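2024-03-11 09:14:02 INFO worker-7 job=invfold-0412 stage=load source=structure_tokens
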């Protein structure tokens, strides 16, 4: 079994910062791309940022220059540093990882965290 557990969400004023963390655990053989997605009320889930095992990053245009994704491969953890937060960043943020597990070495699968709420409001 593989689990992703997020932490770090909360309520912040516009212009403020938050740092999200997501730790993967379980029967992990290898972790490929990790990323963050978000879903606002009444909207579809959208990509925020991704990072490959080699450190290449990709960002949604709406967060470029404000958010930074990073990862610690030794800890199987991905982070999202969010600065200059705006009310439109309010959403549930989900961690995602492409993982090959010891249970099924022949393939790799997408795993999701349970989500963490980020609310940007004065």
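2024-03-11 09:14:09 INFO worker-7 stage=emit residues=122
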């Amino acid at each position: 079994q593989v689990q992703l557990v997020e932490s770090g969400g909360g309520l912040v004023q516009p212009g403020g910062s938050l740092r999200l963390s997501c730790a993967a655990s379980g029967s992990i053989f290898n972790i490929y791309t990790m990323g963050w997605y978000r879903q606002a009320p009444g909207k579809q889930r959208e990509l925020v940022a991704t990072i490959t095992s080699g450190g290449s990053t990709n960002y949604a245009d709406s967060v470029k220059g404000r958010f930074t994704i990073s990862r610690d491969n030794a800890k199987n953890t991905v982070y999202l540093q969010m600065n200059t937060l705006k009310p439109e960043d309010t959403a549930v943020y989900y961690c995602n990882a492409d993982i090959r597990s010891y249970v099924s070495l022949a393939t790799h699968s997408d795993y999701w965290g349970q989500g963490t709420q980020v609310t940007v409001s004065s």
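2024-03-11 09:14:09 INFO worker-7 stage=report msg="The chain has a mean pLDDT of 96."
2024-03-11 09:14:10 INFO worker-7 job finished
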